[in-house]
Amino acid sequence: MAELATLARPYAKAAFEYALAADSLAKWSEMLALAAQVAQQDAVKQLLAAPNLTTDAKGQSFADVCGDELDAGGQNFVKNLANNNRLVLLPHVQQLFEGFKAQQEKSVDVEITSAFELSGDLQDKVAKALSAKLDRNVNVSSSVDQSLLGGVLVRAGDTVIDGSVRGRLAKLAEAMNS
Fold first, then answer.
1. What's the angle, vertex CA 85, arms to CA 83 and CA 89, rounded to 5?
2. Using an 8 Å Cβ cutoff, are 72 and 46 in contact?
3. What domain count does the chain have?
4. Distance from C-alpha of 123 to C-alpha of 133, rounded to nearest angstrom
5. Does 92 lie in the same domain as 9?
6. CA proximity to 82, closest of 65, 98, 96
7. Smallest Cα–Cα separation from 95: which of 109, 85, 82?
8. Model confidence over 5-51: pLDDT tens digits?
9. What is the DSSP string of 100-125?
10. 143 vs 117: CA distance, rounded Å
11. Based on the domain organization, do 8 and 79 belong to the same domain?
């Protein structure tokens, strides 16, 4: 997995820099999301694995499947990936691109998991506190996991804040066993 991300990084960075220079981050985000979904389809995977097709044919076929959703720059990007036998990296390229985009926009997606449904006011308070702590705009999504027993589990990128009762009990058990 890390190897695929390493291979995808230069392509994601190139796409990001091109989109940033063209002031079209949102459009490129949409195009890459579509291309990543197309690349994960079984029929497309079979097409990309076909040994009798040239890389140009694979790139053109892939661009044709995406249709008008890809602009000229997007089609060129897909064909470049095809020429380097890297179309299978599109899901990783898209994921890395989104990370670069979020960093540029100073935003972060935060997932809050709680034992019970959080009210809108409480979600807003948590979002404001996290926004101040992380110095970023926070996009909150929440879910319920009753196995937490109480408290919340917050995931913001690589940062995890475990304020759940289950997490505290696990820490206590670990401390008692050591």
1. 120
2. no
3. 2
4. 15
5. yes
6. 65
7. 109
8. 888 999 999 999 999 999 999 999 999 999 999 999 998 888 888 88
9. HHHHHTTEEEEEEEESSPPPHHHHHH
10. 7
11. yes
pTM for the whole structure? 0.67
Q: Which of 89, 83, 85, 35 is nearest to 62 (CA)?
A: 35
Q: Give the Cβ contact number of residue 64 at 10 Å.
A: 10
Residue whose tokens read 């110095």: 135
The upper half-sphere exposure of residue 70, i.e. CA atoms within 13 Å in the direction of its Cβ, equals 23
Same-domain pairing of 23 and 66: yes
Distance from C-alpha of 98 to C-alpha of 23, rounded to nearest angstrom: 15
Residue indicated by tokens 């091109």: 18
The closest alpha carbon to 79, from 101, 54, 99, belongs to: 54
Structural domain span for residue 117: 106-177
Residues 14 and 91 in one domain: yes
Q: Amino acid identity, residue 91?
A: P
**What is the identity of the amino acid at 107?**
S
Kindly state whether residues 74 and 112 are assigned to the same domain.
no
Q: Give 95-150 pLDDT, tens digit per residue.
A: 999 989 888 888 888 888 888 888 888 888 888 888 888 788 888 888 998 888 88
Of 46, 74, 102, which residue sits at a domain end? 102
